[in-house]
Amino acid sequence: MKKILILIPLLIFSLSFSQGTLYINNYSDYGLQMRISAASPTNCFPLVYTSMSFPANTQSKIADFNNAAPYTNSWSIIFNYNGNIVGQPIPSAVLNTVSPLTQWQECQFMTMDNNNPNQPTDDIRFEMGDPTAFANCTPTSGSTFVDGNLTDAFWFYIPSQNATYLVVQP
């Protein structure tokens, strides 16, 4: 009985800190080449990041690191300030372990030319994120709204849903 009473608060505590879902809604006619990261908002580590190619006119839900396919097949993890980068293919038990410790931090992306998918458009380079959510982490960049030449982008977090949204629109 004593063990059960100890395990219940631990379970509740671990569930209260979870990565949350990332919704990427690209309503534009441009594909996105992006680098996305998640980190601990309190001490900045672990830091988990990857590069993704995201198609035009696509909406997707990424529930956690292991559910990011087909947009990526691996993540990189840095466990502390002086730590080495550790690559993890998906699925991975290590990604399951670090997922509850992180929150979606930022997304840097470029819109890609439809006629030449390897060529960025003339639009600005977007740096999306909420620096106030990661005030202890430096450097933290990003904006919650960016008005580009070809597209606009929004980044926001809804605590009641534990969900982060990236919205790109014409």
- Low-pLDDT regions: 5-16
Beta-sheet strand percentage? 35-45%
Helical proportion?
Answer: 10-25%
Counting helices, strands and paired strands, the structural category is: mainly beta
Count of discrete domains: 1
In DSSP terms (H or I, runs of 4 or more residues), the helix count works out at 2
The total count of strands amounts to 11
Largest sheet: 6 strands, antiparallel
* Oligomer kind: single chain
CA-based gyration radius: 17 Å
| Nearest-integer average pLDDT | 88
The order of strands across the largest sheet is: 6-5-3-2-7-8
What's the N-to-C terminus distance? 58 Å
- What are the secondary-structure elements, in order, as H or E? HEEEEEEHEEEEE
Query: Any idea what the shape is?
Result: globular
List the topology elements.
Layout: H1 2-16, E1 21-26, E2 31-39, E3 47-54, E4 58-62, E5 74-78, E6 85-89, H2 93-98, E7 103-112, E8 126-129, E9 145-147, E10 152-158, E11 163-169
Describe the structure.
The structure is a single chain. This protein has 170 residues and is mostly beta strands. It has one domain. The protein is 12% helix and 41% strand. It has two helices and eleven strands, in the order αββββββαβββββ. Strands 6-5-3-2-7-8 form a six-stranded antiparallel sheet. A five-stranded mixed sheet has the order 4-1-11-10-9, with no helix packed on it. It is globular. The protein starts with a helix and ends with a strand.
